[in-house]
Design a protein that fits this description.
The protein is an all-alpha fold and about 190 residues long. It has a single domain (about 40-170), classed as Tetracycline Repressor, domain 2 (Orthogonal Bundle). The protein is about 70% helix and about 0% strand. The chain is built from 10 helices and no strands. The protein has helices at about 1-10, 20-25, 30-35, 40-50, 55, 65-80, 80-95, 100-125, 135-155, 160-170. Helix 1 crosses helix 2 (about 20-25), helix 2 packs across helix 3 and helix 7 crosses helix 8. The longest helix is centred in the middle third of the chain and has 28 residues, at about 100-125.
Length: about 190
Amino acid sequence: MAATRALLARDGYDQLTIDAIAKEAGVSRPTVYRRWPSKAHVVFDAAFGDTPAADDVFAGTDDFGADLRTFVRGALEFWGRPVVSAAVLGILAERKRDPALHIRTQQLLDEQTVSGFTGLVRRGIEQGVVRPDVDVGMLYHLLISATFYAVVVQHHSTTDDLVDRLCSLVLQGATKERGHPPDDQPA
């Protein structure tokens, strides 16, 4: 895994080969293939196999805003990890062709983050900060995609300002008041 991470961070997903991994690790190519069926599987384990425990990000407090900031900062930092950033676009492309890889990536998202995020939002509802009718799944997708795009596509670094801006959109919403149309729309 260390060899794969080093090569991935240095050369990127497209340039990485099983031969290069085997050579860097000091093993034979068949040794790598005995454990992983493809480059995508090796890269997935190298990039995502040592992700922080969801408990660290979702420990929770009595402050939904602080918990949301912890989640958003954690997502930004996750996408910003050099190995993750180098691997993610290749993994996304490969998962369409490989049902086993697709399942593994979904399990990572579903088991480690969606349930934790749902708990975070439920605590916010219990605290009276979050509307009870909030679409938790869509809010999750909004934050994951926004953090992914900001870091992987736009190359933003994790800053307090970026965390504040994303959290502000969630906490305040995009309209003046829920249930009221914008000023230029008829009621």
